[in-house]
Amino acid sequence: MFSRQVTAHARAGDVVVLLSTSGRSANLLHAAEAARAAGARSWALTGGGPNPLTELCDESIALEGHGANVQEAQLVLVHALCRAFEHRIRARTAAAS
Question: Strand pairing partners for 45?
Fold first, then answer.
């Protein structure tokens, strides 16, 4: 995600999730700053920390390992996050009906 997209779409109460192997990508650092300016929270999934992105974001998970291993772990975490959202949405839908 890049700062222009965050500026255009992020609002207070949103969460912007940023993935970086190094935690040093300038475009993601700018996106985290844009999220903060918009009143959104930022979560980082990065390689080993601390790094600039983990320091800048509200919450972070820094994964030790080599680039490809970090990316594989990020994929697992994103799938788990999506599964949790899916579970929560289904529970709310069931409670509302």
Answer: 19, 61
